[in-house]
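Box S1 | Example of a co-folding query
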Amino acid sequence: MSNETVNGARPAGSGVDEATARIVDLAQRREARDAAAAGLVAADIADAETVAADAVLTGEVIDPPGAALLDTGAPARVPVLPSWLTSRAHLHAQVRRWGGEAAYLAAVHTVRLPVYAGKVAWYAPQGAYRLAGRVLTWTTAEDGNWSLRQDAANRNDSRTFLELDRHRMRLTAWRWWITGFGTAGAGTGGVVLATDLLPWWVRVPVAGAALLGLARYGRPLDAPILERTIVRARYRKLTAELTRKGIMATGLVKRPEDITFAAGGEIRRDGPGYLAIADLPDGVIAVDVVERREKLAGGLRLPMDQVWPEVMPREHPGRLALWVADRPVSAMKQPAWPLLKDGTTDYFTPFVYGFDPRMRPVMYRLDERNSLFAGFPGSGKSLSARVVMSGGALDPLVTFAVFDLAGRGDFDAFEPLCAPALFGSGADDGTKQRAYQMLMWLLKECDTRGPLIKRYATQGLNTENKLNRAIAQRDARLRPILASIDEVQELITDPELGKAAAAAMTSIVKRGRALGIHLLIQTQRIDKDSLPKGVTSNIALRTCLAVPSHTEVDLALGTGAYNQGARPNHFEIGVDAGWGVRVGYGPLTTVRAAYLDRAAVEQICARALRLRGGAVADVEMDEARDVLADVLGVLEADESGQHWDTLAARLADRHPQVYSAMTADALSAMVRGLGLESRNVKVSGEVRRGVYRAQLVTAIDERAGDSD
Ligand SMILES: Nc1ncnc2c1ncn2[C@@H]1O[C@H](COP(=O)(O)OP(=O)(O)OP(=O)(O)O)[C@@H](O)[C@H]1O
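Box S1 (continued) | Returned holo structure for adenosine-5'-triphosphate
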């Protein structure tokens, strides 16, 4: 409709003199209002900012009658139950909050009890005296027509006076009876309370209530017995006004009234805080507000940690969910991990991983997913990954492979759950080599599992050529595998193994997903070299913990995550340890892993070992291969050299269990890592990079000479 309006343009042919005062035609105005209500704009001939529609609209009619309506989703409905009644955690939070307030009031008034007792002792007799006076006045009906009688007396009108007094006497006749019975009843009550006729727990509260009532009646109006306690404003209620004030502080919106609140989404309590669903004016989207969280918090006069603006998934981009916590979230106590003390999990079913800022449980899924945890040192990666691994450990079917390339011992508790060849902890080359062998083993598993699973499909155990629990239980060769590598960048950037390891990981995350292989990698270095796109882009479940800037956010979570509102760069390392933004399972989620300290993880692993009958099966690994000898072995007798790509393909063919993921680049990097040069090799007239037989032979001879 705005295309019908041109600022400052004069109405075509109106002939209105701007200098003259405008006379408004009320009938026309009314008509225009009705038209506006019907969704139309009536051009007001006297409106200097409106021009005739046909002067501007030269093309086709934009909204022909009966144009299709856009589906903006199901009509918003008010929740049947208040949100604090819909989850146990929220109910606890609400009860705790009420309990806290009740305890505070009880404490305040208990301390003041002696003062209150003194006030009651002072005012109760005064109340009794006042009450007696009031009852007497009522009984004698002196108040009723006193002024009329006085008036008759002043006028010496004895007849009227006597008539009025007779009326008064008639009233007093029955009132004396009531007063008499009332006084006798009160007296008897007093005697009963003063003696032992009733137990103390009846007498004390009744006497107390009576005294309190008298004291209340006897006190001056401005002297309350209970001290007025101004309860500290511990909780700041989020109102529409406050929400608008906060959003205005971002500088994105010009007029507060442009911020509206979604129907059915009024501001309400949600977990330990308040939730407002606001619709932003045209041209402003929720991501813009999320981006200016700091200004928003400033406008609300609250610490950042208490203000959680979010984009609403599956809603229009201008709808903002603003959740304001009662207290800074980092100071809130997270609920305990539900599986901490008992319970088991199922690899194929989600389990609780952590809690979002509203303290709602957030689930984690192992099947058909791979995981990445990226964050700066101290952001809580290892702890978060340990929760995922603890979840996996509580399914007795899961086979573990764990490599900690930092060697800090964060994952030592999982050692008893791993076959000896599948556990390593250390920053040395040997551990990296073993981690690489583990990847080769996973590749081999990918090769063997596919045909086996297909066979079970023909027996009716699955429908989609994917591993499921029934198959995993039936065949010990198809147990789900959870393979974790901490500080994976150490392996990926290794000059010798890096390229081949990255290629292997890419292959594993692509193929292993449906075969019950979950690769979980963690890294603190977030750049293109440490997180090659081939690996990350195939990992579905990615969690980014505290990082310095949007570059790392997009590298870890995928390009565009920052634009969609992911802001892990707002987390403060140390304070917000464990907080991360996750993609790949449900909508973009801000979540903090449940806190499991070392002792808790050790207990969980001990439980997990018991679930596995106290021991884990050994795993056969292929011996580490001699790469140079293998390359020499695939050179044909008449070849003096060969290209890397041909050699890589031949190696994958000859030793698929070890080299199936081998690429030309990876092979070149591995061989160069062993001290050989990559050279131009001419084969069948084509010159490409490769290696000569003579180089390989010399290197092998030198190595043999060194070891002698
Ligand atoms: N979910 C959590 N809840 C509470 N505190 C946490 C949480 N996660 C981590 N922390 C705290 O942060 C500290 C660092 O965690 P962690 O060792 O997992 O970080 P990291 O990112 O792995 O660091 P590094 O890269 O140096 O290994 C922990 O010792 C713990 O005190």
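The radius of gyration is 41 Å. Confidence is low (pLDDT under 50) at residues 1-24, 35-61.
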